[in-house]
Amino acid sequence: MGFLSRIFGMEKRAVPGDAYLGAFLESRAVSGGAVTPDAVLSAMAVATACVSRRSQGLASVPLQIHRNVGTSNAARAEDHPLYDVLNARPNDYQSAFELREFLVRSHDLFGNAYARIERNARGVVTALHPFMPNMVAIEKLQSGRLRYRATDYDGKTWVLLDEEMLHVRGPSRNGMLGLSPIAIARGALGLALAQAETAEALNVNSLRPSGILSWPHKIDTAGRGLIRAQVAEKYQGPRNAGELMILDGGAKYERITFTPEDAELLASRKLANEDVARIFDCPPTSVGIVDRSTYSNTEQEALALVRNCLAPLAARFESAFARCLLTDAGRSSFFFRHDFSELLRGDMKTRFEAYRLAREVGVYSPNDVRRLENEAPIEGGDAYHMPANWLPLGAEAPAAPGGPSL
User: Fold this and answer.
1) CA distances (Å), 97 to each of 59, 104, 214, 245, 343, in order?
2) Among 42, 224, 253, 269, which lies 20 to 30 A Cα-Cα from 166?
3) What residues have CB less than 8 Å from 318, skipping those under 6 apart?
4) Contact 273, 43 (CB under 8 A)
Protein backbone atom coordinates (compact mmCIF):
# COMPACT_ATOMS: atom_id res chain seq x y z
CA MET A 1 0.00 0.00 0.00
CA GLY A 2 2.89 2.37 0.71
CA PHE A 3 4.27 1.70 -2.81
CA LEU A 4 0.84 2.36 -4.40
CA SER A 5 0.48 5.53 -2.35
CA ARG A 6 3.76 6.86 -3.68
CA ILE A 7 2.83 5.88 -7.25
CA PHE A 8 -0.61 7.52 -7.24
CA GLY A 9 0.26 10.42 -4.97
CA MET A 10 -2.18 9.36 -2.26
CA GLU A 11 -1.83 11.21 1.02
CA LYS A 12 -1.38 9.15 4.16
CA ARG A 13 -1.46 9.76 7.86
CA ALA A 14 1.79 10.99 9.37
CA VAL A 15 0.79 11.49 13.03
CA PRO A 16 1.84 8.75 15.48
CA GLY A 17 -1.07 6.72 16.76
CA ASP A 18 -0.46 7.66 20.39
CA ALA A 19 -0.91 11.39 19.87
CA TYR A 20 -4.34 11.35 21.50
CA LEU A 21 -3.13 8.94 24.19
CA GLY A 22 -0.65 11.62 25.26
CA ALA A 23 -3.46 14.18 25.40
CA PHE A 24 -5.47 11.75 27.55
CA LEU A 25 -2.62 11.18 29.95
CA GLU A 26 -2.17 14.93 30.32
CA SER A 27 -5.67 15.07 31.82
CA ARG A 28 -4.34 13.25 34.87
CA ALA A 29 -3.45 15.40 37.85
CA VAL A 30 -0.15 15.21 39.67
CA SER A 31 -1.94 13.44 42.52
CA GLY A 32 -3.27 10.80 40.11
CA GLY A 33 -6.93 11.85 39.90
CA ALA A 34 -8.53 12.76 36.59
CA VAL A 35 -8.94 16.49 36.02
CA THR A 36 -11.73 16.51 33.44
CA PRO A 37 -13.96 19.42 32.40
CA ASP A 38 -17.02 17.75 33.98
CA ALA A 39 -15.19 17.17 37.27
CA VAL A 40 -13.90 20.75 37.43
CA LEU A 41 -17.27 22.34 36.61
CA SER A 42 -19.18 20.05 38.95
CA ALA A 43 -16.93 20.52 42.00
CA MET A 44 -15.84 24.15 41.58
CA ALA A 45 -18.44 26.89 41.24
CA VAL A 46 -15.74 29.45 40.46
CA ALA A 47 -14.63 27.47 37.38
CA THR A 48 -18.25 27.36 36.20
CA ALA A 49 -18.49 31.14 36.67
CA CYS A 50 -15.21 31.74 34.80
CA VAL A 51 -16.26 29.70 31.78
CA SER A 52 -19.70 31.31 31.73
CA ARG A 53 -18.27 34.81 32.08
CA ARG A 54 -15.84 34.28 29.19
CA SER A 55 -18.23 32.49 26.84
CA GLN A 56 -21.28 34.68 27.45
CA GLY A 57 -19.19 37.86 27.55
CA LEU A 58 -17.57 37.24 24.17
CA ALA A 59 -20.76 35.94 22.56
CA SER A 60 -22.73 38.99 23.71
CA VAL A 61 -20.66 41.59 21.82
CA PRO A 62 -21.08 42.22 18.08
CA LEU A 63 -18.53 40.57 15.80
CA GLN A 64 -17.89 43.15 13.10
CA ILE A 65 -16.43 42.53 9.64
CA HIS A 66 -14.36 45.46 8.39
CA ARG A 67 -13.23 46.26 4.87
CA ASN A 68 -9.84 47.86 4.31
CA VAL A 69 -10.32 51.28 2.73
CA GLY A 70 -7.10 52.97 1.70
CA THR A 71 -4.14 53.39 4.02
CA SER A 72 -4.94 52.82 7.72
CA ASN A 73 -8.68 53.22 7.12
CA ALA A 74 -11.46 50.67 7.46
CA ALA A 75 -15.24 50.59 7.10
CA ARG A 76 -17.82 48.15 8.36
CA ALA A 77 -18.82 45.55 5.79
CA GLU A 78 -22.28 44.64 7.03
CA ASP A 79 -23.19 43.53 3.51
CA HIS A 80 -20.63 40.69 3.67
CA PRO A 81 -22.30 37.22 3.71
CA LEU A 82 -20.38 36.24 6.84
CA TYR A 83 -21.92 39.08 8.83
CA ASP A 84 -25.30 37.34 8.94
CA VAL A 85 -23.70 33.95 9.68
CA LEU A 86 -21.70 35.25 12.67
CA ASN A 87 -24.23 37.72 14.07
CA ALA A 88 -27.70 36.40 13.26
CA ARG A 89 -28.23 32.87 11.95
CA PRO A 90 -25.25 30.51 11.67
CA ASN A 91 -27.41 27.47 10.92
CA ASP A 92 -31.01 26.25 11.02
CA TYR A 93 -31.08 25.33 14.71
CA GLN A 94 -28.90 27.87 16.56
CA SER A 95 -28.67 31.60 17.07
CA ALA A 96 -25.37 33.39 16.64
CA PHE A 97 -25.09 33.83 20.40
CA GLU A 98 -25.57 30.11 21.01
CA LEU A 99 -22.98 29.10 18.42
CA ARG A 100 -20.32 31.53 19.60
CA GLU A 101 -20.96 30.66 23.25
CA PHE A 102 -20.59 26.97 22.38
CA LEU A 103 -17.31 27.60 20.56
CA VAL A 104 -15.82 29.57 23.46
CA ARG A 105 -16.90 26.94 26.00
CA SER A 106 -15.37 24.22 23.83
CA HIS A 107 -12.15 26.21 23.62
CA ASP A 108 -11.99 26.81 27.39
CA LEU A 109 -12.90 23.27 28.43
CA PHE A 110 -11.19 21.18 25.75
CA GLY A 111 -8.66 23.55 24.15
CA ASN A 112 -10.27 23.17 20.70
CA ALA A 113 -13.48 24.40 19.07
CA TYR A 114 -14.75 22.93 15.81
CA ALA A 115 -17.50 23.72 13.31
CA ARG A 116 -18.14 22.33 9.84
CA ILE A 117 -18.14 25.05 7.18
CA GLU A 118 -21.01 24.84 4.70
CA ARG A 119 -20.57 26.69 1.41
CA ASN A 120 -22.80 27.25 -1.58
CA ALA A 121 -21.89 26.62 -5.23
CA ARG A 122 -19.98 29.93 -5.40
CA GLY A 123 -17.84 29.06 -2.37
CA VAL A 124 -19.58 31.56 -0.06
CA VAL A 125 -19.92 30.44 3.58
CA THR A 126 -23.62 29.95 4.34
CA ALA A 127 -23.62 28.03 7.64
CA LEU A 128 -21.48 26.71 10.50
CA HIS A 129 -22.29 23.38 12.19
CA PRO A 130 -20.50 22.77 15.52
CA PHE A 131 -18.98 19.49 16.69
CA MET A 132 -18.32 18.34 20.23
CA PRO A 133 -14.52 18.58 20.64
CA ASN A 134 -14.23 15.03 22.00
CA MET A 135 -15.87 13.74 18.80
CA VAL A 136 -13.18 15.10 16.47
CA ALA A 137 -9.82 13.52 15.59
CA ILE A 138 -7.07 15.27 13.63
CA GLU A 139 -4.76 13.59 11.13
CA LYS A 140 -1.72 15.17 9.54
CA LEU A 141 -1.33 14.11 5.94
CA GLN A 142 1.95 13.52 4.15
CA SER A 143 1.56 16.85 2.37
CA GLY A 144 1.45 18.65 5.73
CA ARG A 145 -2.25 19.46 5.52
CA LEU A 146 -4.69 18.50 8.27
CA ARG A 147 -7.66 16.22 7.90
CA TYR A 148 -10.51 16.00 10.42
CA ARG A 149 -12.63 12.97 11.24
CA ALA A 150 -15.70 14.11 13.16
CA THR A 151 -18.98 12.61 14.33
CA ASP A 152 -22.01 14.88 14.65
CA TYR A 153 -24.98 14.65 17.03
CA ASP A 154 -26.85 12.35 14.64
CA GLY A 155 -23.98 9.85 14.57
CA LYS A 156 -22.93 10.74 11.04
CA THR A 157 -19.20 10.64 10.35
CA TRP A 158 -17.53 13.44 8.40
CA VAL A 159 -14.08 13.53 6.83
CA LEU A 160 -13.13 17.16 6.29
CA LEU A 161 -10.06 19.02 5.06
CA ASP A 162 -8.68 22.35 6.30
CA GLU A 163 -10.92 24.52 4.16
CA GLU A 164 -14.03 22.63 5.34
CA MET A 165 -13.49 22.98 9.10
CA LEU A 166 -13.45 25.99 11.41
CA HIS A 167 -10.87 25.14 14.07
CA VAL A 168 -10.11 27.49 16.97
CA ARG A 169 -7.28 26.02 19.03
CA GLY A 170 -5.85 27.09 22.34
CA PRO A 171 -2.12 27.25 23.16
CA SER A 172 -0.55 24.32 21.34
CA ARG A 173 2.59 22.25 21.64
CA ASN A 174 2.46 20.78 18.15
CA GLY A 175 0.45 23.34 16.17
CA MET A 176 -2.47 20.93 15.67
CA LEU A 177 -4.13 20.28 19.02
CA GLY A 178 -4.80 23.09 21.46
CA LEU A 179 -4.56 22.90 25.23
CA SER A 180 -7.31 24.17 27.52
CA PRO A 181 -6.63 26.08 30.75
CA ILE A 182 -7.76 22.90 32.53
CA ALA A 183 -5.07 20.83 30.80
CA ILE A 184 -2.36 23.43 31.30
CA ALA A 185 -3.07 23.95 35.03
CA ARG A 186 -4.15 20.42 35.84
CA GLY A 187 -1.85 20.29 38.90
CA ALA A 188 -3.44 23.31 40.59
CA LEU A 189 -6.93 22.18 39.63
CA GLY A 190 -6.19 18.65 40.85
CA LEU A 191 -5.30 20.06 44.27
CA ALA A 192 -8.49 22.14 44.30
CA LEU A 193 -10.54 19.06 43.40
CA ALA A 194 -8.86 17.09 46.20
CA GLN A 195 -9.80 19.83 48.67
CA ALA A 196 -13.39 19.78 47.42
CA GLU A 197 -13.50 15.99 47.87
CA THR A 198 -12.10 16.37 51.39
CA ALA A 199 -14.79 18.89 52.27
CA GLU A 200 -17.47 16.59 50.87
CA ALA A 201 -16.13 13.63 52.86
CA LEU A 202 -16.10 15.68 56.06
CA ASN A 203 -19.66 16.77 55.43
CA VAL A 204 -20.87 13.23 54.80
CA ASN A 205 -18.85 11.20 57.29
CA SER A 206 -17.84 13.40 60.20
CA LEU A 207 -19.79 13.80 63.43
CA ARG A 208 -20.47 17.52 63.98
CA PRO A 209 -22.93 18.15 66.86
CA SER A 210 -23.40 21.78 67.90
CA GLY A 211 -22.94 21.05 71.60
CA ILE A 212 -22.88 18.44 74.37
CA LEU A 213 -25.23 18.01 77.36
CA SER A 214 -23.61 15.87 80.04
CA TRP A 215 -24.75 14.48 83.43
CA PRO A 216 -22.58 13.13 86.22
CA HIS A 217 -24.65 9.92 86.34
CA LYS A 218 -25.67 7.50 83.62
CA ILE A 219 -28.97 8.05 81.77
CA ASP A 220 -30.83 5.19 80.13
CA THR A 221 -32.04 5.18 76.53
CA ALA A 222 -35.56 6.35 77.35
CA GLY A 223 -34.19 9.23 79.42
CA ARG A 224 -31.88 10.37 76.62
CA GLY A 225 -34.77 10.36 74.14
CA LEU A 226 -36.98 12.36 76.51
CA ILE A 227 -34.23 14.97 77.12
CA ARG A 228 -33.55 15.31 73.39
CA ALA A 229 -37.26 15.83 72.65
CA GLN A 230 -37.65 18.43 75.42
CA VAL A 231 -34.56 20.37 74.33
CA ALA A 232 -35.67 20.32 70.70
CA GLU A 233 -39.15 21.55 71.60
CA LYS A 234 -38.03 24.39 73.83
CA TYR A 235 -34.72 25.59 72.42
CA GLN A 236 -34.45 24.63 68.73
CA GLY A 237 -35.80 26.58 65.76
CA PRO A 238 -35.95 30.29 64.87
CA ARG A 239 -38.83 31.03 67.28
CA ASN A 240 -36.77 29.86 70.25
CA ALA A 241 -33.60 31.75 69.38
CA GLY A 242 -32.14 33.42 72.49
CA GLU A 243 -34.36 31.43 74.88
CA LEU A 244 -32.87 31.09 78.38
CA MET A 245 -31.68 27.53 79.03
CA ILE A 246 -32.09 26.17 82.60
CA LEU A 247 -30.38 22.88 83.48
CA ASP A 248 -30.77 20.85 86.68
CA GLY A 249 -29.63 17.55 88.05
CA GLY A 250 -25.95 18.45 87.61
CA ALA A 251 -26.30 18.83 83.81
CA LYS A 252 -23.58 20.73 81.98
CA TYR A 253 -23.70 22.21 78.44
CA GLU A 254 -20.52 22.58 76.39
CA ARG A 255 -20.54 24.32 73.03
CA ILE A 256 -18.41 22.78 70.27
CA THR A 257 -16.33 25.49 68.65
CA PHE A 258 -14.97 25.77 65.12
CA THR A 259 -11.70 23.84 65.01
CA PRO A 260 -8.45 25.23 63.56
CA GLU A 261 -8.43 22.35 61.05
CA ASP A 262 -11.82 23.49 59.73
CA ALA A 263 -10.61 27.08 59.44
CA GLU A 264 -7.51 25.91 57.54
CA LEU A 265 -9.62 23.92 55.09
CA LEU A 266 -11.82 26.93 54.38
CA ALA A 267 -8.78 29.15 53.84
CA SER A 268 -7.31 26.60 51.43
CA ARG A 269 -10.55 26.45 49.46
CA LYS A 270 -10.63 30.26 49.22
CA LEU A 271 -7.09 30.22 47.86
CA ALA A 272 -8.11 27.51 45.38
CA ASN A 273 -10.97 29.70 44.14
CA GLU A 274 -8.55 32.57 43.55
CA ASP A 275 -6.21 30.18 41.69
CA VAL A 276 -9.06 29.13 39.37
CA ALA A 277 -9.82 32.78 38.61
CA ARG A 278 -6.13 33.33 37.77
CA ILE A 279 -6.06 30.26 35.52
CA PHE A 280 -8.94 31.64 33.42
CA ASP A 281 -7.66 35.26 33.56
CA CYS A 282 -10.85 36.43 35.27
CA PRO A 283 -10.66 39.21 37.89
CA PRO A 284 -11.88 37.86 41.26
CA THR A 285 -14.87 40.21 41.61
CA SER A 286 -16.15 39.27 38.14
CA VAL A 287 -16.72 35.67 39.31
CA GLY A 288 -18.14 36.41 42.75
CA ILE A 289 -14.99 36.55 44.90
CA VAL A 290 -15.75 39.76 46.78
CA ASP A 291 -13.73 39.37 50.01
CA ARG A 292 -11.54 42.38 49.22
CA SER A 293 -13.79 44.25 46.82
CA THR A 294 -14.45 47.97 46.95
CA TYR A 295 -16.36 50.31 44.66
CA SER A 296 -13.19 51.49 42.93
CA ASN A 297 -11.47 48.14 42.41
CA THR A 298 -14.74 46.53 41.24
CA GLU A 299 -15.01 49.14 38.49
CA GLN A 300 -11.38 48.66 37.50
CA GLU A 301 -11.69 44.88 37.50
CA ALA A 302 -14.70 45.15 35.20
CA LEU A 303 -12.43 46.96 32.73
CA ALA A 304 -9.66 44.41 33.36
CA LEU A 305 -12.08 41.62 32.45
CA VAL A 306 -12.42 43.12 28.98
CA ARG A 307 -8.82 44.19 28.45
CA ASN A 308 -6.93 41.27 29.99
CA CYS A 309 -9.38 38.39 29.61
CA LEU A 310 -11.87 38.88 26.78
CA ALA A 311 -9.64 40.90 24.41
CA PRO A 312 -6.88 38.23 24.04
CA LEU A 313 -9.57 35.56 23.70
CA ALA A 314 -11.29 37.66 21.02
CA ALA A 315 -8.02 38.06 19.10
CA ARG A 316 -7.58 34.27 19.05
CA PHE A 317 -11.07 33.78 17.61
CA GLU A 318 -10.70 36.64 15.11
CA SER A 319 -7.50 35.18 13.69
CA ALA A 320 -9.08 31.71 13.46
CA PHE A 321 -12.14 33.13 11.67
CA ALA A 322 -9.90 34.95 9.20
CA ARG A 323 -7.80 31.83 8.58
CA CYS A 324 -10.72 29.44 8.12
CA LEU A 325 -13.56 31.54 6.71
CA LEU A 326 -11.77 33.95 4.34
CA THR A 327 -9.82 33.22 1.19
CA ASP A 328 -6.33 34.60 0.56
CA ALA A 329 -7.86 37.48 -1.38
CA GLY A 330 -10.49 37.99 1.31
CA ARG A 331 -7.87 38.26 4.07
CA SER A 332 -6.19 41.10 2.22
CA SER A 333 -9.47 43.04 2.04
CA PHE A 334 -11.42 42.09 5.19
CA PHE A 335 -10.76 41.45 8.87
CA PHE A 336 -12.80 40.65 11.99
CA ARG A 337 -13.11 42.75 15.17
CA HIS A 338 -15.22 42.30 18.30
CA ASP A 339 -16.89 45.53 19.37
CA PHE A 340 -16.32 45.97 23.11
CA SER A 341 -17.59 49.54 23.25
CA GLU A 342 -20.72 48.55 25.18
CA LEU A 343 -18.71 46.72 27.83
CA LEU A 344 -16.22 49.57 28.19
CA ARG A 345 -18.84 52.30 28.59
CA GLY A 346 -18.66 54.21 31.86
CA ASP A 347 -21.50 55.71 33.87
CA MET A 348 -23.75 58.35 32.29
CA LYS A 349 -21.85 61.34 33.69
CA THR A 350 -18.50 60.04 32.43
CA ARG A 351 -19.94 59.19 29.01
CA PHE A 352 -21.52 62.61 28.47
CA GLU A 353 -18.39 64.43 29.56
CA ALA A 354 -16.50 62.44 26.93
CA TYR A 355 -19.18 63.19 24.32
CA ARG A 356 -19.00 66.91 25.08
CA LEU A 357 -15.24 66.95 24.65
CA ALA A 358 -15.43 64.92 21.42
CA ARG A 359 -18.09 67.24 19.99
CA GLU A 360 -16.18 70.38 20.91
CA VAL A 361 -13.09 69.26 18.98
CA GLY A 362 -15.12 68.10 15.97
CA VAL A 363 -14.83 64.33 16.43
CA TYR A 364 -18.56 63.69 16.99
CA SER A 365 -21.67 65.36 15.68
CA PRO A 366 -24.88 65.48 17.74
CA ASN A 367 -26.27 62.57 15.76
CA ASP A 368 -23.09 60.54 16.34
CA VAL A 369 -23.67 60.94 20.06
CA ARG A 370 -27.33 60.00 19.72
CA ARG A 371 -26.45 56.85 17.77
CA LEU A 372 -23.99 55.82 20.49
CA GLU A 373 -26.80 56.22 23.01
CA ASN A 374 -29.23 54.26 20.79
CA GLU A 375 -31.35 57.34 20.11
CA ALA A 376 -32.85 58.33 16.76
CA PRO A 377 -30.97 61.05 14.82
CA ILE A 378 -32.38 64.57 14.63
CA GLU A 379 -32.68 66.91 11.66
CA GLY A 380 -29.55 69.00 11.21
CA GLY A 381 -27.64 66.93 13.73
CA ASP A 382 -24.93 65.72 11.34
CA ALA A 383 -22.95 68.99 11.36
CA TYR A 384 -19.47 68.95 12.85
CA HIS A 385 -18.09 71.95 14.73
CA MET A 386 -14.69 73.07 15.90
CA PRO A 387 -13.55 75.91 18.19
CA ALA A 388 -13.07 79.18 16.26
CA ASN A 389 -10.02 80.10 18.33
CA TRP A 390 -8.06 77.01 17.19
CA LEU A 391 -6.08 78.62 14.33
CA PRO A 392 -2.47 78.38 13.18
CA LEU A 393 -0.24 81.08 14.63
CA GLY A 394 -0.41 84.27 12.54
CA ALA A 395 -3.55 83.20 10.64
CA GLU A 396 -6.46 85.60 10.30
CA ALA A 397 -9.69 84.58 12.01
CA PRO A 398 -12.43 83.60 9.55
CA ALA A 399 -15.23 86.04 8.83
CA ALA A 400 -18.50 85.50 10.59
CA PRO A 401 -21.38 84.58 8.28
CA GLY A 402 -22.84 87.79 6.82
CA GLY A 403 -20.30 90.05 8.55
CA PRO A 404 -16.72 91.34 8.31
CA SER A 405 -13.72 89.31 9.36
CA LEU A 406 -12.63 89.52 12.97
Assistant:
1) 5, 11, 62, 59, 16
2) 42
3) 335, 336, 337, 338
4) no
Residues in the chain: 406
Higher-pLDDT residue of 405, 289: 289
Q: What is the dihedral of CA 311, 148, 26, 51, to 10 degrees?
A: 30
Helix, strand, or coil here: 175? coil
In whole angstroms, give the CA distance from residue 52 to residue 42: 13
* b/e burial code for range 309-324 (CB count within 10 A of at least 16 → b): bbeebbebbbebbeeb
CB 120 within 8 A of CB 126: yes
CA-nearest of 93, 96, 38, 94 to 64 is 96
Distance of alpha carbon 163 from alpha carbon 135, whole angstroms: 19
167 close to 101: Cβ distance less than 8 angstroms = no
CB count, 10 Å around CB of 96? 19
β-pairing verdict for 112-119 and 334-338: unpaired
Most confident range (mean pLDDT) of 42-51, 109-118, 364-373 is 109-118
The helix/strand/coil state of 160 is strand
Q: Does an H or E element contain 372, and which?
A: helix 366-372
The one-character DSSP state at 172 is B
**Higher-confidence position of 233 and 361:** 361
Q: Round to whole Å and give the CA distance between 66 and 338.
A: 10
Query: Which of 63, 138, 65 lies closest to 104 in space, CA to CA?
Result: 63
| Residue 289 contacts residue 274 (beta carbons within 8 Å) | yes
First to last CA, the chain: 91
DSSP string covering 259-298, please?
PHHHHHHHHHHHHHHHHHHHHTT--GGGGT--TT--HHHH
CB-side exposure of 248: number of CA atoms within 13 Å?
Answer: 0
- Burial of 101-135, coded b for 16+ CB within 10 Å and e otherwise, reads bbbbbbbbbbbbbbbbbeeeeeeebbbbbbbebee
Phi first, then psi, for residue 305 (nearest 5°) are -60, -40
Domain ranges of the chain: 11-31+46-186+274-343, 209-255, 345-399
Beta strand 211-214 with 125-131 is unpaired
Which residues of 31-181 form beta strands (DSSP E)?
A: 63-68, 74-76, 112-119, 125-131, 136-140, 146-151, 157-161, 165-169
Q: What is the pLDDT of residues 181-231, one digit of tens each?
A: 999 998 888 888 887 777 766 666 554 566 676 777 777 788 778 877 877
